[in-house]
Amino acid sequence: MAQPIPEMVWIDMETTGLDEDRDVPLEIGFMVTDKFGHEIAHKSWIIVDEAWKDRVEDAKQDELVGPMHRNNGLWFDWDQALILGQNNPRYVQDKAMEWFDMKEVAYGQYPLAGSSLRLDRAFCKKYLPDIEYFFNYRIIDISSDKEQCKLLNPRVYDKMAEESGWKDTKSHRVIPDIRDSIREYQYYQHNFLWVADGLD
Question: What is the pTM of this model?
């Protein structure tokens, strides 16, 4: 069976909060798929910086973010990466570029895909600018598909969890959350975005 052709690059980030001017990134992940969302490869990194320790400690006490990342293990993984001291932003950007090259993801060729991408791109622009500039300015945001489906075909949207097995229950770890976004994207493919045109 032929290997799928890379046609989409998916991204997800975990952060201490939603304000890129105040908060900091904790984890970033990518997945390369074909245009239908069939996985080809994935990679993720914890991102650490000594200068972020106070902000991370504050986030650990936050009533929402604190228990969320305690339960999913991200605080533990972040603390371990800080002890090892290698996953600083420069290191992660260099490793991401090496991985893109290895997976034949060419500069400027791909829009980024994912959910609520304004947040991911804003944090990349501030903390990981090489990654932000690597990708096409266009995006494929599954959150937009969600809102359009809810507005234009609410019956299809309401049937999504029942018919696809997809549930909007994020783990708030990057690779599982990318897979959730892809499952949602595939549901919209077959039930909302695609219309038969009579061609093979």
Answer: 0.91
